[in-house]
Amino acid sequence: MNEPIAYGHQTAAVEVHTPTPLTPAHTAPLMPMQPGTIPSVASVILPDGRVVTGYAIEPAKPEPVVAKPAVSRAAVNVALGGVGFLAVCGGLLLLTSFIAALTALVTQLVILAAVIFGGWIAVQVFSASGKRDGTTVNIRKAVIKRNKFYG
To answer: How far is it, in rounded angstroms, from Cα 42 to Cα 57?
Structure first.
């Protein structure tokens, strides 16, 4: 496994070390399944004689199963959609009622203004503020009666 590797102008030899695991003091019979417990500390002897000791990795725990809801999500979505639809319908009904009430108010105000203005005109026409012999128009202190000018 010692092969020279070329780096530019120089070549270097690479040694591959394969770690050799320690044999435990007591040997258990080999079984085709995993052991029930994992040793808490594992040691490995390197080729140069050093011993590397480390903690074992704990096995992955499966995630807890999520409880299925009592009511399906589709049923919840349909119910929420129905509630939303009813809310929109109620809002439109209130808006329509408000617009109808506002229209009635404006109509009554217009009628009231017409009655008041019409009454004022009637008072002006039928008031006895002068002689009834002709039409009088005041233009800058001059009086015109029946197409005759008096100045």
So the answer is: 10
- Paired tokens of 113: 């203004």
Number of H helices, E strands in the chain: 1, 8
| Structure tokens given for 46 | 């390197």
Q: Taking Cα atoms as reference points, which of 49, 41, 56 lies closest to residue 20? A: 49
Q: Could you identify the residue written with the tokens 């203004």?
A: 113
**H or E segment to which residue 12 belongs:** strand 10-14
- Between CA 92 and CA 89 the distance in angstroms is 5
Task: Tell me which amino acid residue 123 is.
Answer: V
117: tokens are 């203005």
Quick one: tokens of 114? 């017409």
> pLDDT at residue 108 above 90?
yes
Residue with tokens 């990795």: 57
Q: 18: which 2 tokens? A: 């394969």
Q: Are 21 and 46 in contact (CB under 8 A)?
A: no
Question: What does the chain come to in residues?
Answer: 151
pLDDT digits (tens, 9 = 90+) for 18-62: 767 666 655 555 555 555 665 567 777 888 888 887 766 677 788
Residue 2 CB contacts under 8 Å (≥ 6 apart), including other chains: 13, 14, 15
